């Protein structure tokens, strides 16, 4: 296991600590950087060395002025010593600054990559119910924009905040060694800066929160618009879609302007306040020099250090809105990282070689935040290798049964057993390796046909690939394409027909040699010719395997070993195709309706 993966897994374990609650972004940030403490300390060490020119210059300048104003007390040697020391201090900045950035950057980039990887891993572990409540656009905003904002926050903390704090600390120490009264005057800037932050903090935090949520909404709206493009174009609804996005953009623009104006008002208030402080410092030290309390050259020394303190305080105040944005992004990513709505099943028992014997034992199910049962007191025994088809009106519970079989949801009551092992005890990752799922809308990605067939299986021989290509009735398609199996199929397989996409999905299922097959309306959207080819491929797929089929077109399930008719979440009747027709019950009426509609 490589080092980066170890660090990602360590980061995942950190977020098991519930004390990292939303509302404690500083602790969250410290937790992120705890494994990189060595790099941070080295970075601070080189920062102190590389920053020394800024601290040495006021001292050297004051020395040279004092030497020039009292030539009788000093020789030219003192001038040269001051100049040489200053030159050496300046030149060392090149290597030490590079080392400071090197170690800071390593820590920041490791955390950035680790945080994104941890977010992706967490998304894979969230329950399907949790994903149903999250828009894909919002998730993208969290993984991309919010992590980038946290990275920027880290840079500000390592560069701007560290620089400002160190400059203030060193300046105050040097001034204290020269004059306690001037030090007291300088120290007054700290409560002033705290007061300014306190006046703006809540408004900046609230405005950042509103702006972040508006960006997530806009991202979700744009993502939805892209997915709906075929429907929008087909119905001439381009203007409706544009107006919907424009409305979101107008809200975002308004929030953005409000945030920018608040930050501008905050920044200008800081600048005016501390310019007045600097003017007061110049007057105060000039009076001291006029009275002979300090040498004339010390006016430059104090003015230089006070200017450094003012710049540091101003830097902290100006960077505060950016820090607030970073903290808001921390709140955003913790919504995912600390989300406890993960995989429904937590079992660890390895299933071994799956035979495909399935038992539904008095299973009831209702979706979260709903009192209505989708399934009620359902019992069903399925033998290994049996093909069971579920039919019934929409909302009868057919697709819910398949989702329960996959383990996306757990029964509200009762249990499901696989080969006699309750699903509660099963290791879902191992169990699902024995599953193959073919949906109505085949889910393909924008790679090649080969990539889509062998998805997740890197060591598949060419012979095995062509074997499943033939079994899926796909050879004629592959041989007509310019690059054969290596032909790129476009996003979601957009360059292929529906039947071709379905056959690729079936080939992907076949190559895994699954023991349990789940077919959810796999041919309902196809024309007769495509359906015939897909049906042939499906017969090869289900041979000798336990298969569950959901179908609206009853003619496609004539060969099923058993047909289960669902009505209002319960089994109304079951039997073979011919048996159900002879009973003249629910199935007979459905068949009659479909026949009369043809």
TrEMBL record:
Residues 358-593 form the ABC transporter domain. Belongs to the ABC transporter superfamily. Signal peptide: none annotated. One of its GO terms (cellular component) is plasma membrane. Its main location: membrane. It is a multi-pass membrane protein. The chain crosses the membrane at residues 80-100, 157-176, 182-200, 271-293. Keywords: ATP-binding, Membrane, Nucleotide-binding, Transmembrane, Transmembrane helix. One of its GO terms (molecular function) is ATP hydrolysis activity. The keyword Nucleotide-binding applies. Residues 56-325 form the ABC transmembrane type-1 domain. It is found in: Cell membrane. This is ABC transporter. InterPro entries: AAA+_ATPase, ABC1_TM_dom, ABC1_TM_sf, ABC_transporter-like_ATP-bd, ABC_transporter-like_CS, P-loop_NTPase, Type_1_exporter. The lineage of its organism: Bacteria, Bacillati, Bacillota, Bacilli, Bacillales. The keyword Transcription does not apply.
């Amino acid at each position: 296991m490589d080092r980066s993966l170890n660090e990602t897994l360590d980061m995942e374990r950190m977020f098991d600590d519930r004390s990292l609650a939303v509302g404690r972004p500083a602790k969250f940030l410290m937790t992120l950087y705890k494994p990189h403490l060595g790099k941070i300390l080295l970075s601070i060490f080189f920062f102190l060395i590389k920053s020394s020119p800024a601290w040495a210059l006021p001292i050297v300048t004051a020395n040279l002025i004092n030497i020039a104003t009292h030539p009788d007390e000093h020789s030219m040697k003192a001038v040269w010593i001051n100049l040489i020391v200053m030159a050496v201090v300046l030149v060392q900045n090149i290597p030490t600054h590079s080392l400071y950035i090197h170690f800071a950057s390593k820590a920041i980039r490791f955390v950035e990559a680790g945080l994104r990887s941890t977010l992706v891993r967490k998304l894979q572990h969230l329950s399907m119910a949790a994903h149903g409540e999250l828009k894909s656009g919002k998730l993208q905003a969290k993984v991309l924009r919010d992590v980038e904002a946290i990275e920027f926050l880290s840079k500000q903390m390592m560069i701007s905040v560290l620089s400002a704090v160190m400059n203030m600390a060193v300046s105050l120490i040097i001034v204290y060694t020269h004059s306690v009264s001037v030090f007291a005057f300088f120290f007054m800037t700290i409560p002033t800066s705290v007061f300014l932050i306190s006046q703006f903090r809540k408004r900046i935090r609230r405005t950042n929160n509103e702006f972040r949520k508006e960006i997530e909404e806009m991202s979700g709206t744009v993502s939805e618009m892209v997915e709906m493009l075929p429907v929008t174009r087909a119905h001439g609804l381009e203007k409706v879609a544009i107006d919907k996005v424009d409305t979101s953009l107008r809200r975002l623009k308004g929030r953005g302007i409000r945030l920018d104006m608040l930050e501008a008002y905050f920044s200008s208030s800081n600048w005016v306040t501390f310019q007045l402080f600097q003017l007061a410092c110049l007057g105060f030290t000039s009076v001291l020099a006029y009275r002979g309390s300090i040498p004339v050259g010390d006016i430059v020394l104090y003015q230089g250090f006070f200017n450094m303190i003012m710049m540091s305080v101003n830097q902290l105040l100006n960077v505060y809105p950016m820090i607030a944005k970073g903290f808001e992004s921390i709140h955003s990513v913790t919504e995912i990282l600390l989300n406890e709505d993960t995989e429904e099943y937590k079992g660890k028992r390895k299933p071994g070689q799956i035979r495909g014997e399935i038992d539904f034992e008095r299973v009831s199910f209702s979706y979260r935040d709903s009192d209505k049962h989708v399934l009620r007191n359902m019992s069903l025994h399925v033998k290994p290798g049996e093909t069971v088809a579920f039919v019934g009106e929409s909302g009868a519970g057919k697709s819910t049964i398949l989702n329960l079989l996959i383990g996306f949801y757990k029964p509200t009551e009762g249990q499901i057993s696989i080969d006699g092992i309750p699903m509660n005890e099963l290791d879902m990752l191992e169990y699902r390796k024995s599953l193959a799922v073919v949906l109505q809308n085949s889910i393909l990605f924008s790679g090649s046909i080969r990539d889509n067939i062998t998805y997740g299986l890197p060591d598949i021989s060419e012979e095995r690939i062509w074997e499943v290509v033939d079994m899926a009735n796909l050879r004629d398609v592959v041989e007509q394409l310019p690059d054969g199996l290596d032909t790129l199929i476009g996003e979601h397989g957009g360059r292929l027909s529906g039947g071709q996409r379905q056959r690729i999905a079936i080939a992907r299922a076949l190559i895994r040699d699954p023991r349990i097959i789940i077919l959810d309306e796999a041919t309902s959207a196809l024309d007769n010719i495509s359906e015939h080819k897909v049906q042939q491929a499906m017969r090869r797929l289900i041979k000798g395997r336990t298969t569950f089929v959901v179908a609206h077109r009853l003619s496609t399930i004539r060969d099923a070993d058993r047909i289960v008719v669902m009505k209002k979440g319960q089994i109304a009747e079951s039997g073979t195709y011919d048996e159900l027709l002879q009973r003249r019950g629910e199935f007979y009426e459905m068949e009659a309706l479909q026949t009369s509609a043809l």
